[in-house]
Each structure stands twice: as C-alpha cells, then as structure tokens.
C-alpha cells in the first residue's frame, strides 16, 4: 500500500516543480508574472500566432492575454505585425530580447527537471511521462477512456 495517496503525490510534485521553477526564474533574473511568462512562451513556441490563439491555448480570457502582451511589447520582448490574411488581427513574434528571455526560461525549466528526475533512470522517467500523459489525456478527452 502506498504511503501517500495519488492526489497527495501529485500535489506535492506540482508544488515542488513550481518551487524549483520559481527559484530558477529568480536565479535567471527574470522579473515577469506567471501569465506573462506563459504568454511569452506561447509567442516563442508559435511565432505568427495571434492573441486569440494564445488565449484559447492557455484557456484564458483574451483581454487578460492582451494586457500581458501589451506589457511584453512595452518591455521589448514581443512585437505585433499586420496579418496579411486578416486585417482584423495582428501576428505576434518574439524580439531578440524575447528569445534571450525564453532561453533563460528554458534553462530554469531544465534545471528544475534535472533536480526532480535526478534519482530516476531512463525507463522510470519514460514510464512516468507515459502515465502522466495518460492521466492528462483522460481529462482533456474523456471520451477516449
């Protein structure tokens, strides 16, 4: 019988990961709120996206994402460009500074993952990823159970 319940284990893991990630972000000298970080990641991982597509992917209100984007644009991390296919929307892309910040975020994430997985072998890590994806997919697509 496990010492902790699944919910407690997931809760502890989530908080440990967030703690390590916050430490890494602080170490990298990034001073952005979580929503801004997630929004920047969305722009960097999908250059040419729109505010609407980021809001849908993050499951957030478009106005909230627009505020974060305006701040990121003000900081010189993201730029807007006219959308040649739809004049009602604008395409987003990271600036050189935005890409530098994204590289810092990637380092912080990698360090957190390294710390969390340091006692796992490749097979254990692969099993964990597979099981985590199965559980997440059951929530995202309940009809696929």
Automatic annotation (TrEMBL):
GO molecular function: DNA binding; DNA-binding transcription factor activity
Organism expressing this protein natively: Parahaliea maris
InterPro entries: HTH_MarR-typ, MarR/SlyA-like, Tscrpt_reg_MarR-type_CS, WH-like_DNA-bd_sf, WH_DNA-bd_sf
Pfam families on file: MarR_2
GO-annotated biological processes: response to stress
Protein name in the entry: MarR family transcriptional regulator
This protein's UniProt keywords: DNA-binding, Transcription, Transcription regulation
SUPFAM superfamilies in alphabetical order: Winged helix' DNA-binding domain
Chain ranges of the HTH marR-type domain: 3-137
